[in-house]
Write a structure and sequence with these properties.
Layout: E1 5-8, H1 21-37, H2 41-55, H3 58-66, H4 70-77, H5 93-98, E2 103-107, H6 112-122, E3 130-132, H7 145-154, E4 162-166, H8 169-178, E5 181-185, E6 197-199, H9 205-214
């Protein structure tokens, strides 16, 4: 693999979404469900988690069972008054990405407008050839196979040419089944067999790139 295509997850891979962004989105989703379905907060939280666990995305459950408009849901639940205050990232990331050989694509279950805004705030938007967001997946998010196949078709890629960098094991397992290489961004001990490499930070990726490219 002389010139791989790097597929980067966004949230909790390129930046720390757990600090401020995920709590905001979760609260926004709960409020949205309360308003749209006329249920209380406890019921809304239950549905949000139930659909996320069952379908991989709360949105899919709301569309399938309640005819919620996807575009409206994504816009309302990813609305931030001061997004730049909530994005937590390492400013060394741009330099590291610039020294990582090969094409780079953001592969995110989030909406396109949100993903592009975060990348712009981080100053790394120009490091990527494309942002492949949930709209491009036709609302069939990772780890569903269809999400991966749509990206591969759109960019005319072979799975063996791709390396997925993710914090989600389910997404990495799906990628490995298709023949991609996998990098898990996580600080825990151990790693499953379908993970080719585990790093505690995406900042370590350029140093590990040669090892990834050389392994079969």
């Amino acid at each position: 693999m002389s010139s791989p295509v790097w597929l980067f997850d966004l949230d909790n891979t390129l930046h720390n979404a757990s600090a401020h962004i995920f709590p905001h989105i979760n609260a926004s989703m709960t409020a949205y469900i309360c308003e749209q379905l006329n249920v209380d907060e406890t019921q809304a939280n239950h549905l949000r988690m139930q659909y996320w666990q069952r379908y991989g995305a709360t949105l899919l459950g709301l569309v399938r069972h309640h005819n919620v408009d996807p575009a409206h849901f994504l816009a309302e639940t990813h609305r931030f008054d001061r997004l730049h205050d909530k994005v937590v990232f390492d400013r060394a990331l741009r330099h590291r990405l610039e020294h990582l050989p090969g094409r780079k694509i953001v592969f995110s279950n989030g909406p396109s407008a949100y993903a592009r805004s975060v990348l712009s705030i981080m100053g790394i938007a120009r490091c990527f050839d494309d942002v492949f967001a949930v709209e491009n997946m036709r609302l069939q998010p990772k780890p569903q196979t269809g999400a991966f196949r749509r990206l591969l078709r759109a960019h005319r890629l072979q799975p063996k040419a791709c390396i997925l960098i993710e914090d989600s094991l389910e997404n990495l397992r799906a990628a490995k089944r298709l023949g991609m290489k996998t990098v898990w961004i996580d600080r825990s001990h151990g790693k499953p067999a379908y993970v080719d490499m585990k790093l505690s930070s995406v900042l370590q990726l350029p140093r590990a790139a040669s090892k990834l490219r050389s392994t079969s």
